[in-house]
Amino acid sequence: MQFNKIVLTFSLYILCGMVSGQEKTSYVNPMIGTVKMGHTFPGACVPHGIVQLSPDTDTIPHSINGVYQKDTYKYCAGYQHDDKTIVGFSHTHLSGTGHSDLGDILIVPVTGSLKFNPGTADKPDSGYRSRYSHDTEKARPGYYEVVLDDYKVKAQLTATERVGVHKYTYPEGEVQKILLDLTHGIYNYDGKVLWASLRVENDTLITGYRITNGWARENYTYFAISLSKPIKKYGYVDKEKPKYSGFWRKFDLQNNFPEIAGRKIVTHLEFDNNASAPLVIKVALSAVSTQGAIKNLEAETKGKSFDQIAAEATAKWNKELNVVDITGDIDKKTMFYTSLYHTMINPSVYMDVDGQYRGIDHNIHQVEGFTNYTIFSVWDTFRALHPLFNLINRERSTDIVKSMIAHYEQSVHKALPVWSHMGNENWCMIGYHSVSVLADALDKGLNIDKDKALEAMISSSNLDYYDGTGYYKKLGYVPVDKNGSGSSITLEYSYDDWTIYNTAKKIGNQTVADAYQKRALSYRNVFDHQIGFVRARLSNGEWKTPYNLLSTHGEGFIEGNSWNYSFFVPHDVKGLIKEMGGDKQFVQRLDSLFTMHLPDEFFAETEDVTREGVMGNYVHGNEPSHHIAYLYAWTSQPWKTQYWVREIMNRMYRNSIDGLCGNDDCGQMSAWYIFSAMGFYPVCPGTNQYILGAPYFPYMKVNLGEGRYLEIKADKVSDKMRYVKSVKLNGKPYTKAYINYDDIKNGAELTFEMSSTPNKKRLFNEDEKPYSLSK
Amino acid sequence: MQFNKIVLTFSLYILCGMVSGQEKTSYVNPMIGTVKMGHTFPGACVPHGIVQLSPDTDTIPHSINGVYQKDTYKYCAGYQHDDKTIVGFSHTHLSGTGHSDLGDILIVPVTGSLKFNPGTADKPDSGYRSRYSHDTEKARPGYYEVVLDDYKVKAQLTATERVGVHKYTYPEGEVQKILLDLTHGIYNYDGKVLWASLRVENDTLITGYRITNGWARENYTYFAISLSKPIKKYGYVDKEKPKYSGFWRKFDLQNNFPEIAGRKIVTHLEFDNNASAPLVIKVALSAVSTQGAIKNLEAETKGKSFDQIAAEATAKWNKELNVVDITGDIDKKTMFYTSLYHTMINPSVYMDVDGQYRGIDHNIHQVEGFTNYTIFSVWDTFRALHPLFNLINRERSTDIVKSMIAHYEQSVHKALPVWSHMGNENWCMIGYHSVSVLADALDKGLNIDKDKALEAMISSSNLDYYDGTGYYKKLGYVPVDKNGSGSSITLEYSYDDWTIYNTAKKIGNQTVADAYQKRALSYRNVFDHQIGFVRARLSNGEWKTPYNLLSTHGEGFIEGNSWNYSFFVPHDVKGLIKEMGGDKQFVQRLDSLFTMHLPDEFFAETEDVTREGVMGNYVHGNEPSHHIAYLYAWTSQPWKTQYWVREIMNRMYRNSIDGLCGNDDCGQMSAWYIFSAMGFYPVCPGTNQYILGAPYFPYMKVNLGEGRYLEIKADKVSDKMRYVKSVKLNGKPYTKAYINYDDIKNGAELTFEMSSTPNKKRLFNEDEKPYSLSK
């Protein structure tokens, strides 16, 4: 394990008792995942807040003069721990994504002569960016601190849901200055900022907005900035000659003129040094208006000091993280609570305190009876993150599903979110997996309008122009000569359609159920029985030749080769086993997946994953495989789940800066870890079943809300004692391969007797095996 | 008089009895001013509606590759009668301005193969524009018709306040197509459109918006388009490769994909020809949202046919134009009612039917107790247009003033409008003349919050950074070495400050009155007593040397040379006479102004004016001189007003396409004509006095509202009988040089006895002469 300075700082921080040892926040290390592929950010936010105030160490444009810059990808969260300089602090960040965006409203505390360009990492003095040292960096949930060495300014950051709060301590006697660079952004390019506008309302209040065309096609970021001391002097640089020949040239923009607008605006402000009293800046965001931002500013921070807000941020995190108590060693606890932390960043609340928000139709809507959320990376999160919310945060999950249904209603496509953020649909990745999210929410009894949900699910699955859906409906599969990801899509649509089938069946709509039951078996149309693998199929019905089971690109797959993807039939594992030639072959196939070697040439085709994110040919750093280790439950060798899940947890989740083996993907990677640590996993969201593995900790107590607790005991569990000898539910022997949500929802005690050897007698009868569509 | 085809068409139209001879709309010729400098548009609108649906014959970009294109100016209203082609029909137009903008949401009915560029006038086949003939063109208030020859499509246009309605009759059997070009605009350039977005909500409803950076710095135009028949097929051309690498490329934008967004979008739609039934398109605008546009669409046009809406538009115009009855010949009546028509286009209502509007702070506001208006060309319109509203349309005037006060409250500068449109301040031209508008409104008893108004007036006159105000306050004048228009500005600030003085005095705020009384005499600081003219002054107190009284540029003036501008002291004419050397010299000076020759080299410096707009050295095509012909009232030869005013009316207002001698300037030129035709003019808005000239018509009846009428009788008036022998007010001899508003506000009868020779005995005692600040 890499145990470098930051971890040291972090550990010292705990040892120094700055937060109580019992507080869950003390087990969170926001630095985990901030290097290489994790794409997490170290900055300050509160649970599911829209503000993620964090240092950006670089923001490579996605194109320069039309040429794509591959390092753009590196900066999905704006921060890479290897970097030696910090550009500044911006207010919005995606957590763990494989695509970059945001980085809105950059503030940099500076001293001395002003520079209006960020400069470059190799020549930091060429711009306003500053060198920094990890020695001065502190990060905990809701708080971040660093010293910008070039300016000797200590920057402390905290946040509320909608407000980022900065505290800058300047060197004594130095004129205190800040830059507000409205051209800065992640996934930037020359032209991303469609428009920016700024008003100095009075000497302690600035309002403004910018509209960007980034990954989010149209992102409206309004803001209100409150300053703890009066502005003494300010001005603007407009890096683009304004094209309109209005009469703005009448004014001196460098001399306290109270407004500016344009595409490329950088503002500089100076303050009295006030005997070096720190400068506190509160930046409220809104997607609605500057009026909305002011309301948010006042509601969440009025009259509160930086320290108060920071303390409240910590308290919010402790409250949320308290949902689980565990015993275990500090590294594992840190990994666990950091994972839990990472499941609580996105989706993010996307409405003003008065309930107004910008919809997917870009109209302003008023919520009725729910909180609106955004940032839906559904291809990732339908798997474990939403099921986790349904277990431990049902109120938020209800709001998220209602937000998705509002999205559906406002969508011109009448479609649920695919990859949606800030009132935009990005159509990223594949499938229409929000149907799974709705299905699982309904199955878990959330208070959702069932008929409206089914309507939305049906509508979302019938956009003929969307990603092969027309072919899928006509041919039963998506041909690769029409769509390069056709085989992956066919598998995922099959599962999605199963969730519609299952929902319709429960609601009692037999016609829909029948139609979708048929569609749910479409996966068979891409299984080549000759080889027992999914294989790319052409629109004339023939298989693609030649084919390569280890390759992803060109073989009809995305983020997973046929070896991994062929296991993606979570709703019909029995059917899948049959396709693969029966139990013996299926188990062998699983064993091989985890143990075979993936040659470098094929590893190069995996995306978003480090070498550590691959175990054999099993790719954990991407999502299509997340359920695979649990598939042994349907076989004659279920104990192998217990082995491999613990291997994955040990090897791929480590309390170190590079501890994540792939993109955290808005919490999906982390949610997998949380479930697996509990000893079960939702292989097929929408069923009532969690497939049993083995607990990771000796003791865990999960708060299900309303005074209901799930206690999970595995007294002697360890890497050695990783096998389950027997299970008891509420003190009674329990022999099934899964537990039902209904068995635990009112509170329960699950007790695992652990062993250093597999209990090969703990086999499951047919009726103890988990659900499959086909019998 | 030029009597060409259009006038013929127009007259035939009346003769054919298509509208009743008594209807006032039959006397309106929207073609007047549509060539050369008039800058009026011929299209369809209703009184003060935000939609002005009109053909654009060209829209020269204001710059091509950074090079300014002077013909941009020619197309301020989008139409020049000389042009041989029509580009299409767009929904927003400024009326008579000297700066161009708008031209939003262009629709073109087409047939055959599609073209996505407008092409050029010299090569019309290179684009979608069409040839047309004035023979097929018909225009009346609220209605416009033309045949696009290249497509053989008859286009008929009408409007409500917020909806433009198109009726397109295609050739039988032809596939009916339209283009919706979201890149089109007046004052266009490559980059004016910051963003455009479009959704095909269903097969008869399209919504969308675009945000432009034109003359209006940020203009938000949302729309909802309802179609009378279902769209059969549609697609888009995005003329700019989208910069974001989102996943939109998954979709086929040419094949009925229901949304698009970008900077350069052209949409094409096809319809069933339905046995050639015409296509009716209703385009509702909103500055708030597409929701707002849909509300406007439904409230104003739901269930109504094109013919119904056109009939309602006519009825609205007749109602408004009915405010005045006159007797007179048809050409003069046409000029009169066309002028009245031109005073009723701008300002325009700027809010949705539910009272929501976009403020100058770009937040969405809800009106409370007023209707919000925009398009304030205040430097022009403070003179006669607002005073005219205060006489004949007090309710609208109240709303306009309340809109100005709302602007003030939302302005970061805490300033009333200077030149404002679509929620933007353009700061065009000089002065802070909204203070005059408020002062006159208060003087005429409109229901305005007096204290709030005074607060706004004081605040607007104290922006030190605005156009020399700081110097003006410090030095008593604006030095030309600091501001090229310093002398014009000094004169106009002096008058503006008088309105604040006078308002404060009436409210009883003596401190403010005293301060502004002093400021109101600042005009003296730019009068060079040596020469008796206003002269450019430097910041060191010295006069600029050399100087040229006939030149504008470089001499401290704008839109008027010293000869004209030296008369701009409307609030202190007695003081002015003194500055100029007494009565005799003053009269001689006035006489000379009207009769001397302005050499071509100096005419070249006048802006916005045709040669006909200059009489001697008197420039009527620009506004600074508009009051001058009335200044004889303060002298020993008051009858000369009667002579020159009628000369100006006869020479500079003609019922022909080129009948306007300069920009109509949102109705100011026309309002001058209306007042002058009534026989009096508000030389100094804010006083209670209208200065008497002589009526233009034998009989006029002006509806002052609430059953009150002003009758103006001048039985034998003619070009010959242009002189006033005597005046009676309500049958009693009236001997003053002016009438008070209070004398006529409850209705009155003004009777002028006319004569072919001046009544040189009709002289005014000191107490019968009009107001002057100094005695």
TrEMBL record, chains A, B:
GO terms for biological process: carbohydrate metabolic process; glycoprotein catabolic process. Residues 293-755 form the Glycosyl hydrolase family domain. Residues 27-286 form the Glycosyl hydrolase family 92 N-terminal domain. Coiled coil: none annotated. GO terms for cellular component: cytosol. The keyword Magnesium does not apply. NCBIfam families: aman2_put (TIGR01180). Monomer. This is Alpha-1,2-mannosidase.
